[in-house]
Amino acid sequence: MRDKELRNAKGQNEQEFLEAYKPGNYERPSVTVDILIFSLIDKKAETKRTVSQKELRVLLIKRKDHPFMHCWAIPGGFVNMDENLETAAYRELKEETNVEDVYLEQLYTFGNVGRDPRMRVISTAYLALTSQEDIEPVAGDDAKEAKWFIVQNGEQYLKLVSEDGKDVICYDKTTKKDSLKDGSALAFDHLDILLMGLDRLKNKVDYTDVAFSLLPELFTITEARNVYEILLGKQIDKANFRREIKKKVIETDQYADDYKKSQLYRFNPCWNNKKKDNYIKVK
Amino acid sequence: MRDKELRNAKGQNEQEFLEAYKPGNYERPSVTVDILIFSLIDKKAETKRTVSQKELRVLLIKRKDHPFMHCWAIPGGFVNMDENLETAAYRELKEETNVEDVYLEQLYTFGNVGRDPRMRVISTAYLALTSQEDIEPVAGDDAKEAKWFIVQNGEQYLKLVSEDGKDVICYDKTTKKDSLKDGSALAFDHLDILLMGLDRLKNKVDYTDVAFSLLPELFTITEARNVYEILLGKQIDKANFRREIKKKVIETDQYADDYKKSQLYRFNPCWNNKKKDNYIKVK
DNA sequence: TCAATAGTGTCTTTAAGACACTATGTT
DNA sequence: AACATAGTGTCTTAAAGACACTATTGA
């Protein structure tokens, strides 16, 4: 234990020091959190299909004032002095979606000088995943618009289309420009945040269990594969995928409603305990 | 392009808005950067050896005032209003070590409410790696002490020993307590930062090239293996390691001074271009 | 000469990928 | 009946690990 009675150069012990301490009147940046909220949604059936396909979507809000007025942005807000960064992220998340049961992880902190023309803002971005499909974006107190945007993350471009189809944001990864007549990129550096979030998801899919945070309690293996394919952006062999995923799930005695042959599974959080045992053994 | 002449609810265009904008007098947290600076150092020979072994070390400074007076801490400082987070990290790094040519990456942002008893401080931690072994810590203007600490990162405990052997910090990972009579843990939440940094290194070693940032321009394969072993905390089969590492290096016609059979290699930054080609092919 | 190290060769085990095949449910 | 999908079996290929062996150097 460190000795609280140690005295500093001015002869103060720690308590005296803290009482005498006045934070200087230095200029300070504002600190905010921004949250990328992802979930899945049933894809509109293009052909007659028996099983449903899913799509990835992200929640965006429309700015009502300068700067970037009328631009779409990632939801976020100021960090209160009495709340942790993560707490602030949870609070904002709840304010935007009324959802509480989510996967949440810190993504990155964006703090470039000019990222907000009004003032210096340091923003810590969080990544949230939820399995709920029935989330209605909450209209904010300032009557801001909030919409889900389907994420089409191709190799050449990223395309965001609002669920009603009225708003489209298109970004060309090669030319690094937003390239659609009626589309404008996201506000601030929010495009960077989104791209980093998608990248993080892609990377973490095959060495963590993030995919299951997007899936409901019970799911078919085909649905799980569908999620992996969406996040990885490529097709996966169904036989090989089944072999791998079976290590991570436990089967139920239930079957899917729409296709009775599809068995339902649930995620098994203990699946990697065995692997850890092996790991220790190796050492 | 977004139209700057759009007018908001008050009838302002963007320029008018920005000019009229006064950042509110909300309380704001202080924003700092902390930097974990790692490098290697020749291990003191315990037995007569022909080749030198390396150890990992981290730079710490000794606090001269409350809070955590006389505790060791990770170097860092306030972010100026006109510099990016990363710029601030570079600046602090140079102030502490006079080294500029380093690998630098953002680690995590620590922002819990009580982490600094004086005031609310949000700190973005950075991870720096340098290959230079001859770095003398710069004594700060406030005459603060700075020392390199050898990192012994075992499974049960983390032990930090200053190069002169006078300071020892020992942390028991299982009981989560600092467990040495004369040792006290690091200041603030800096132990968490250090542990996260070591974890990040361990994880990134085998899917990135961070290890080479700790190695000099020319190195033997044994030295490279030594670094991997230190960061991973386990022994590696030399034949298998050689097979893997040879993909990432190019050989020179030079040989080590101390043991003439040891061929010297240099890192080949283009080694993964081929792999990327394959990756695209797969898709 | 001897011990330590650099470096090679090869066998085994494991993981990943490709692909054909059967079975079942839906229309 | 025709078709889409669930689910299985098996072959091939690539990566990872284990380990014995030779060659060279420095003391």
From TrEMBL, chains A, B:
UniProt KW Hydrolase keyword: yes
Ranges for domain Nudix hydrolase: 28-173
Coiled-coil regions, chain positions: none
Keywords, comma-separated and alphabetical: Hydrolase
Protein's UniProt name: NUDIX hydrolase
InterPro entries in alphabetical order: NUDIX_hydrolase-like_dom_sf, NUDIX_hydrolase_CS, NUDIX_hydrolase_dom, WH-like_DNA-bd_sf, WH_DNA-bd_sf, WHD_NrtR
Gene Ontology MF annotations: hydrolase activity
Pfam family, one: WHD_NrtR
Record flagged with keyword Hydrolase: yes
Organism: [Eubacterium] hominis
